[in-house]
Amino acid sequence: MAFQILALFAALATVSNAALTRRVTCPDGNTATNAACCVLFPIVENIQTHLFDGGECGDEAHGALRLTFHDAIGFSNTNPSLGTGADGSIFIFQDIELGFHANIGIDDPINNETPFINALNGSISVADFIQLAGAVSLTNCPGAARPTFMFGRKDAVAPAPDLTVPEPFDSVDSILARMGDAGFSPAEVVALLASHTVAGADNIDPNLVGLPFDSTPSTFDTQFFIETQLRGTMFPGTGGNQGEVEAPIPGELRLQSDSELARDSRTACFWQANVANLAHMTQTFSSAFAKMQVLGQDVSQMVDCSEVIPIPKPFTGQAMFPAGITQNDVEQACASTPFPTIPTTPGPVTSVAAIPQS
């Protein structure tokens, strides 16, 4: 009898597992756990081929990632008039929102994505496309974790108001207050800023376009958190750029907000925790990014289509100080833990190349 009962449980478990793993075959031959996700596979393929030039972590990918934040952060837990979050409003009401000072330069990714959005003919929402493109963009940057993707966002019916997007010259108090109102802790604010490891200046100063925020702008590594913690020097703009910038090495640009967050007592230890710890950085970023991507949306009415997102490229390097930089150049800010000991890149000091603009 005991054997029969065990056999029955085994049979039921097999049936249950089969039901859980049952998949549908999409018209293009891909398979999915939910038929609703089938529409996304050809969109992802098109994005990779024609928007991201076959899978590059370049200016187009950086812009798509930036656009996800500028669209989603128009949200408040205390004031509904501050927007409905990740709702596509920055595209739908671009005639209004692109006029906001914080959105200077966002017209570039908007222009890049416009032909793709127009070609959808409403098959998915604008809000879904913006977040889908941003998630796919990450997979082209070696080192990133595979993002999740929830499908089924509702598009905005009104624009987000001005002053919901933090700016590079805002104080730490202002940034943490605005992000806190949207539901993000100081630790999550730092986690989201991992996106700056694959980013650069975009019209912050018209004379300083394409200057990266770290020395490896096409790799989702921890260099951004290392290099932001270094003492800065005034360097002339490079790559045809004019003016002077404050940075640890020539060719970079360090945002005032990043510099201050790296040194503020409320965020410094969260910042330093990412140094030479890619697993921690990607895990905390992925959690905060997933939260940001569904701001203002009813997740219970959405479908998990994470399987349509490509598997990211691996990162095989290691965290290092740039050439000519040593542990002595670190401006220690975390009071409780020493800065990790990491090696210095051998060779002479070199300038970081500007990010080619699309």
Topology:
Elements (H helix, E strand, L loop, with lengths): L1 H20 L2 E2 L5 E2 L7 H12 L7 H14 L16 H4 L1 H4 L9 H14 L5 H13 L11 E2 L20 H10 L4 H7 L30 H5 L5 E4 L7 E4 L8 H8 L4 H5 L5 H16 L9 E2 L54
Antiparallel strand pairs: 1-2, 3-6, 4-5
Helix pairs in contact: 3-6, 3-7, 9-13
Structure description:
It is a single chain. With 358 residues, this protein is mainly α. The chain has one domain: Orthogonal Bundle (Peroxidase, domain 1), CATH 1.10.520. Helices cover 37% and strands 4% of the residues. The chain has 13 helices and 6 strands. It has helices at residues 2-21, 40-51, 59-72, 89-92, 94-97, 107-120, 126-138, 172-181, 186-192, 223-227, 256-263, 268-272, 278-293; strands at 24-25, 31-32, 150-151, 233-236, 244-247, 303-304. The strands form 3 sheets. The protein has a two-stranded antiparallel ribbon. Strands 3-6 form a two-stranded antiparallel ribbon. Strands 4-5 form a two-stranded antiparallel ribbon. A hairpin with a 7-residue loop joins strand 4 and strand 5 (244-247). Helix 3 crosses helix 6, helix 3 crosses helix 7 and helix 9 (186-192) packs across helix 13 (278-293). It is globular, with a radius of gyration of 22 Å.
Give the key terms.
358 residues; mainly alpha; Peroxidase, domain 1; two-stranded antiparallel ribbon; 6 strands; 37% helix; disordered N terminus; Manganese peroxidase 3; oxidoreductase; peroxidase
